[in-house]
Amino acid sequence: MSREVDERVRRVLQQYSDHLNPSWVRGYKFLGVETLEVEAQGAVIRDAYGREYLDFACGPAVFIVGHRHPKVVEAARRELDRMPLSVRIMPNELMGQLAELLAEITPGDLQYVFFCNSGAEANEGALKLTRAATGRPEFIATIGAFHGKTLGALSVSGREMYRKPFEPLIPGVVHVPFGDSEAVASKMTPQTGAVIVEPIQGENGVVVPPDGYLKALREICDRSGALLILDEVQTGMGRTGKMWACEHEGVIPDILTSSKGLGGGIAPVGAFIARPYLWEAMTKHPYMHTTTFGNRLGWAASVATIRVIQEEGLLPRATAIGNRLMAGLRQAASTVPGMTTDVRGRGCLVGAEFADPDVAFLVLAGMVQRQVLAFHGINRPEVIRFAPPLIATDAQVDRAVEVFGDALKEARALLSELDVAPSAQ
Ligand code: PLP
User: The dihedral of CA 297, 300, 302, 305: what is its sign?
Assistant: First the structure.
């Protein structure tokens, strides 16, 4: 059995090397995952060897109610058995129902929704809607932001390494430090169509802005007639303990974007939702912004996921999980001094920062080899990001903490053997 699995793994890694990307294979080898994902349930993934992994990476930050939540699977299966994709030429109940539900659970008068298939696509739509509705072409974005990797979304993202090879990006974008509302005010011009920010920067290593930041941005935008776009692709759907992270400050954006958890871990679903007056442009030209796929299966999963979050009390649970996890990680970090420089987050979005990305990778690899999955921040690899599902148990949180502590100790011992100080590399 094991030899047969070895052969399947070898063949797949060869296919990845020859036809996908050999660098991915090197990454899998470094992390110790020369294996195949096979099935998943709740917070646990099983590989081709029958080994179980605790999933605190979640895709990243996708499996908000865990893998294959029975109610979400049931709703999706119903559509699979009758009509998983819309033909688009006639209306369907699911899209109407999900749009109405999103209008209900998003703050203020956010009302009109466009459905798409990813976070980047949701942000593309938000940027385009801004230009169409305001006639102002420019954007203020933040350093370290991650809004996706299509050309428009990349233009407002904030890591040079990913931007440089694709320049020139869309013109009229300025980047300011995240968390600094005065920097936004200082760059505002009559041509600024919108300020786009994440309520918490996820891929930049879970950066939580100072209290009052979103409120200040709201006021600056109101004063200057620019829109406020909140990218809740990672922070939304309950991840931070509220359905949307902007609710922590009682701020209503003009456009809110969502994806990741929105598809309930069953299908890719993205959306942007806007205030009614902005939708005039879309109403006037209903085919100005379109996409082929109408994902009935995904929309059914979304409706079921929202109900599960509401009915199973998962918002307070996200806060409880996050508090337990952060307390545990801080305690573990304090027993191996000089390694972790910060532990921070909100609800089920938590980051542990290291002085050096190589040390973070070493600790991450140690965790993965002990069968607990987390992820590094794409824009800040020195941060290990934990995005547990909102259904994680206390015992699973404690297991993740224990393994983090063991991986820290192992990395510390290795660095000592090599006579390398973690912060001085
Ligand atoms: N916006 C945020 C805040 C994200 O974290 C991500 C992905 O990590 C995206 C947008 C892009 O989403 P996608 O990868 O689905 O295009």
Answer: negative
The residues that bridge with 46 in the sheet, in sequence order, are: 39, 52
Atom of ligand 1 nearest to the CA of 235: 3
CB within 6 Å of ligand 1 — which residues? 118-120, 123, 146-148, 198, 202-203, 231, 233-234, 259
- Name the token pair of 333: 């970090």
**pTM metric for this prediction:** 0.97
The active-site residue out of 63, 114, 139, 146 is 146
Per-residue pLDDT of 243-301, as tens digits, reads 999 999 999 999 999 999 999 999 999 999 999 999 998 999 999 999 999 999 999 99
Domain boundaries, the chain: 35-65+313-418, 70-311
CB 178 within 8 A of CB 200: no
The yes-or-no answer to whether 35-65+313-418 and 70-311 have a common fold is: no
How far is residue 70's CA from residue 106's CA, in Å, rounded to a whole number? 25
| Per-residue model confidence as pLDDT tens digits over 2-30 | 999 999 999 999 999 999 999 999 999 99
Which pLDDT tens digit goes with each residue over 33-54? 999 999 999 999 999 999 999 9
The torsion region of residue 422 among left (phi > 0), alpha (psi -120 to 50) and beta comes to alpha
Between the CA of 232 and the centroid of ligand 1 the distance, in Å, is 9
Is 166 one of the catalytic residues? no
Query: How remote is the CA of residue 321 from the centroid of ligand 1, in Å?
Result: 23
> Taking a C-beta distance cutoff of 8 angstroms, is the pair 130, 227 a contact?
yes
Mention the CATH class of domain 70-311: alpha beta
The answer for residues whose C-beta is within 8 angstroms of residue 260's C-beta and 6 or more apart is 59, 61, 62, 64, 119, 233, 234, 236, 237
CATH topology of domain 35-65+313-418: Aspartate Aminotransferase, domain 1 (3.90.1150)
